[in-house]
Amino acid sequence: MDSPAIRDRTVLVTGGAGFIGSHLVDALTPYNDVRVLDDFSTGERARLPEDVTVIDGDVRDPIALQRAARGVDVIFHHAAIVSVTQSVDRPRQSNETNLGAGLLVLEQARQEDARVVVASSAAIYGHPDQLPVSETASANPTSPYGVQKLALDRYSQLYAELYDLPTVSLRYFNVYGPRQRGPYSGVIATFLEQARAGEPITIDGDGTQTRDFVHVSDVVRANLQAATTDAVGRAYNIGTGTRTSVGDLADTIRDAVGSSSRIVHRESRSGDIEHSVADVSRAERELGFEARVDLESGIHSLATEDEIATVPTEPGASDD
Ligand code: UD2
Predict the structure, then answer these.
(1) Contact 14, 79 (CB under 8 A)
(2) Fold exhibited by the domain 10-173+216-238
């Protein structure tokens, strides 16, 4: 069953100037009063629509958070240090942002009696025992980032049980799409950049490792569904259910760009996950979520810079 679209609400998007957060802000803004809390450390102000209220502050700062969250109906919590490498180098620092600030958000939501949609991650599963990975699979994170997201994911479920707070945790698989850039941007953005520049496409290892690549417009729809669902206190895998090898991905991107880039192989990344793909049946059943953008169309739109809309044309249009 599809959920009704969220409208006429006051909402806060933490990390709203970032990659996923800014697409979500675009989708929410036409129908809601939207606030963004971002410190612009990696996010970009130019991405934000004019009629959004911007609170330039750190999500770890309780005063800034309190100001941003006053009177809101829903908090979409996307502020995070998303670099796994950075979490390995500086675990305490990333813990403060990814877990410490996450708890502040949950506490603030209690004060405001607000719903919270938490950005969780497939990183919580580590090396999966079984494919596709379901929400009940064992969680064995292999990085501080994964441990932090797992703890926050569990806290959000616990807050629903203990305090009756409506929370939903969305476990993203490999998200890609427009505006994804920077040193931690992921393999699709990296390969596209290399193919466009005619530089070698760098595959780590033999390229047989697989991932579930999900387009950011689908991730936005999952957030909108999470904002209104009755199935709260739950965690949902958000992916496509299809896996693609990194080698095939390189070919697809080279063809889509029409590039003559060579493909080169480097050492495998240490600790790299071999295979990852989401079992999305719970999200389908309980949220009404289904990914709509297949990888080929998603890459084609990126290669031709023909953006797939994240803004529904009218409330409910994304949930037809
Ligand atoms: C993703 C998430 C990460 C965490 C993790 C959990 C992204 C960007 N990162 O990491 O936040 O949730 O999943 O498991 O979504 N690769 C190449 N060449 C390159 C770059 C990457 O071959 O130039 C390979 C890389 O070795 C890996 C695959 O591509 O096998 C995907 O790498 P990634 O960094 O995009 O994402 P991943 O799955 O390591």
Answers:
(1) yes
(2) Rossmann fold (3.40.50)
